[in-house]
Amino acid sequence: MASRRDFLKATAGAGAAAAAGLGTARPLLGAPAVLRGTATPVSVASGNGLEAVATAIRVVDGGGDTLEAVVEGVNIAERDPGDSSVGYGGLPNLDGVVQLDSSVMHGPSRGAGAVACLEGIKTPSRVAMDVMRYTDHVLLVGKGAQRFAVSMGHDIEDLLTERSRRRWIEWRATMSDRDDYLTPEETGHGNSEPFEDEDDYGLGILDSHDGVRPQGTINCNVIDRNGAISGVTTTSGLAWKVPGRVGDSPIVGAGLYVDNDVGACGSTGRGEAVIKTCGSHSVVELMRAGMSPTDACLEALRRIVTFTVEPRLQRDDGRPSFNVNYYAVNKNGDYGGAAIWSGARFAVCDGGDSRHEDSAYLFERNG
Ligand code: ASP
User: From the CB of 269, is ligand 1 less than 6 Å away?
Assistant: First the structure.
């Protein structure tokens, strides 16, 4: 039986395209023009994913599945109480409750699964994978997602660490001078310990629109030597968010997209901007059209700049006052990362030790 790609190739000749009124010989769906046919296994992730990419490569080198590889990789950060951007220890919402979002995509089977507003489960990426494997659905949210997780054997635990709780209390105390909470200065119980994990990788914390709100997420993508591609994105989302807020991470096409014919992309940073521009899907489509991963990421970021018309989200010079990062790999194993603002880094592993590389960017941070 002819595959969909064979069919598209067969019908994408100039005559067929002209007859269909497409005005081009290029198929709208199919492999990217740059396909070389072989790939070196490579994993690319957000800057907090050094261990994730190393794990992903180790798993695929051992013959493991690409989705299992990236999920095992991000599970390290999800279970780490010291990483305040994901899973256990993630920063809570306005009410002090940790709500997690995650999505996975498995290229070879064209599978996708996601959970949003999930409470009490340390590894939402594993629940997203269960949604993909064991249901006919793609996205489960809130209480339903939690009930499903329990039915699949996941334990419910308290995800709020003492450190995250203190940061939430401190934020609540400093939020307004007209509520009944005393400020840390007034109580003499300020935070003495600097939060060193903040914005280590230019994820967007210091550029978030109110200038102080922590953000963070881990995205990890991998391609194996057979060209199989998978990706995962997992997060506790925007700190102090309105309860029920869902970011880009669990939205297929926004915080993650994988097309096994083309490549994968994921994002971190201001989720609302990524959702409005179908960010990761845009990057994959630009790679399909022949752009390198880095150029595709930069082009998708330019769309975000164009879409950012709200003065409250702009600096004085009209540029976005927040950051967004994309991380991408194509079918050839070429990879790249880019951010709106300079100073961001992403994690890569292509066999040896994993390393950080500087992300390309649109604007100089101090420019
Ligand atoms: N993208 C995440 C969200 O909007 C947050 C982040 O990556 O900083 O939920």
Answer: yes
